[in-house]
Design a protein that fits this description.
By secondary structure, the chain is mainly alpha-helical. The protein has six helices and two strands; from the N terminus they run βαααααβα. A two-stranded antiparallel ribbon has the order 1-2. Helix 2 packs across helix 3. It is globular and about 35 Å long. 11% of the residues are buried.
C-alpha cells in the first residue's frame, strides 16, 4: 500500500528545534506536532502544512515523501 511520510522530525532535529518550541512558534498544540513527527496523523490540513513550510522556509517536497507500493507486497 502506498503511503506518505511526514519528515518533520528530521527537519526539526537537524535544526535543533524541539517539538514543543516549534509548536509554540506556529501556535498549535504540541501533541499535534508530536503526531506529525511520529507519522501518527491521519490528515495534514493544507493551512497547517503551509504554516510549517513558511516558518521553516522549506518546500512541501521537503516536508513530505511519497512511498509507492512495493510490487512484492501486492502479490
Amino acid at each position: 500500500m502506498a503511503w506518505i511520510e511526514i519528515k518533520l522530525d528530521n527537519i526539526l532535529e537537524s535544526r535543533n528545534i524541539s517539538n514543543r518550541e516549534f509548536a509554540r512558534r506556529i501556535k498549535i498544540r504540541p501533541g499535534t506536532i508530536n503526531d506529525l513527527c511520529n507519522n501518527e496523523t491521519k490528515h495534514l490540513p493544507l493551512d497547517l502544512a503551509a504554516k510549517i513550510c513558511d516558518d521553516l522556509e522549506i518546500e512541501i517536497a521537503d516536508l513530505l515523501k511519497f512511498h509507492k507500493t512495493d510490487k512484492k507486497e501486492e502479490e
